[in-house]
Design goal:
Helix 2 crosses helix 10 and helix 10 packs across helix 11. Strands 2-1-3-10-4-11 form a six-stranded mixed beta sheet. Strands 7-6-8-5-9 form a five-stranded mixed beta sheet, sandwiched between helices. The radius of gyration is 20 Å and the shape is globular. The chain is 43% helix and 18% strand. The protein has 341 residues and is α/β, with parallel strands linked by helices.
Length: 341
């Protein structure tokens, strides 16, 4: 861990030195290039629509290059944010909070999506409820991510401990795309995953959703799953461009809500581009029915989730009663956009 922290510190120092060397600007003073981070997941639908419909380009101008990097998990994207390799990103609150508390150089500027994850049990595993997860192997997409935090909260509600002893729930990391194989091979008994993976497992006849998205903690599914973050440096030098990104995200949400049938194909185009393969339209439709698209960000809910990370020792050096994420969340630009400023 010390070696990792030392490496992150070195990367942050090098990033700061490179930034100090100067920045390429357009004739109007805007950044010539914006480095945008997303996931290869349908829960990032608003960002996908904003890219596909050209909302980012509309806000930033045709002379601004948009460099998109698609990540497999929130930890990798959060590391890229903390080391200054991404200007604006869409990510889950779990890893975003963990790495912010280490680097303190980026902020939450808007929400994008709440909920969207489900708990799926493998057929034949003898699981009908949360209490049945004792002594079972449960897959999570990555350690410390938002889904693991929700799972730990769900297990605690059901009186099931996480550990390696008999009667404990045993957690194992498997990417959502690998859960189908793991279910077939009976390697795992359940998984808490973002859509569309839950729907895929059900359609393949391999499992069933035993806790739907609106019962996943915290806050009965109404918790941030995808938030927009921006680096402090980008905010300081290009506040209006951050507001443009927020507006593009808002327009993406509005398009999906107003024209869902058109949105499915557009989302699929972006999935093909960044994940290498498309998705059946029915899966995209099912996924969007199990989430809440919103720019709202509930700081108190994020703090609840961060306390789970502290208890699991993903966040160290801070006590639960000392946690305050008010400096992490800056919704001033979102409010300005909402007010037409």
């Amino acid at each position: 861990m010390r070696k990792w922290i030392g490496l992150l510190t070195l990367l942050l120092l090098l990033s700061s030195l490179l930034s100090a060397c100067g920045e390429a600007l357009t004739s109007t003073g805007k950044a010539k290039k914006v480095r945008l981070g997303v996931f290869k997941n349908v829960t990032h639908a608003a960002a996908y629509i904003a890219l596909e419909k050209g909302y980012f380009a509309k806000e930033w101008g045709s002379d601004v290059e948009i460099e998109v990097t698609a990540f497999d998990n929130g930890s990798d994207l959060s590391i890229a944010m903390s080391t200054g390799d991404i200007d604006v990103g869409f990510v889950g609150p779990g890893p975003a909070t963990t790495f912010f508390l280490k680097s303190n150089n980026y902020r939450v500027v808007s929400g994008s999506n709440n909920g969207g994850a489900v708990l799926v049990a493998r057929n034949g595993a003898g699981i009908n409820g949360v209490k049945d997860l004792a002594n079972k192997t449960i897959a999570i997409p990555s350690k410390g991510n938002t889904n693991e935090i929700s799972l730990r909260m769900l297990l605690k509600q059901g009186g099931v401990q996480v550990g390696k002893s008999v009667n404990d729930a045993h957690l194992i990391v498997r990417s959502p795309s690998d859960t189908l194989i793991s279910f077939r091979q009976q390697e795992i008994d359940a998984t808490l995953v973002p859509e569309p993976w839950g729907t895929q497992l059900e359609k393949a006849g391999l499992g069933k959703v035993i806790v739907d998205w609106q019962a996943i903690p915290p806050n009965n599914g109404d918790y941030p799953t995808v938030i927009m973050v921006a680096s402090d440096e980008f905010i300081a030098h290009h506040r209006d461009m951050v507001k443009g990104a927020i507006k593009a995200n808002m327009d993406g949400i509005a398009f999906i809500q107003n024209s869902p049938d058109q949105a499915y194909d557009l989302i699929n185009n972006q999935l093909k581009k960044y994940s290498g393969k498309g998705m059946d339209k029915s899966l995209i439709k099912a996924s969007l029915s199990r989430l809440k698209l919103t720019t709202d960000v509930n700081i108190k809910v994020m703090e609840m989730m961060a306390k789970v990370s502290i208890e699991a020792r993903y966040i160290k050096g801070i006590k639960e009663d000392e946690l305050d994420l008010s400096s992490f969340v800056d919704l001033s630009m979102l409010n300005e956009v909402k007010n037409g400023k």
